[in-house]
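Note to self: keep these together.
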Amino acid sequence: SLEIQLRVLGSEHPDVAASYSNIGIVYRAQGKYDEALLQYQQSLEIQLRVLGSEHPDVAASYSNIGIVYRAQGKYDEALLQHQKSLEIKLRVLGSE
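Structure:
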């Protein structure tokens, strides 16, 4: 799926970013945290370029990265990622 998306849509497309994120979810479920982080970071980089920093999908990516850091016991890094996610959500979606 990702290979086809890259060929058809190019590397700078939200669907490609979503595919990287989905692959990260699988790696995370398998306990392959380093691989999951690489996928999530690839997704985030695309999202930042294509969607901008103030988008709910970007917030979700920061949250996913935070979940992996938490699973690795890297609590300070996890907290930082979750804070970034929350800040975006508050700005974009509001506090209600």
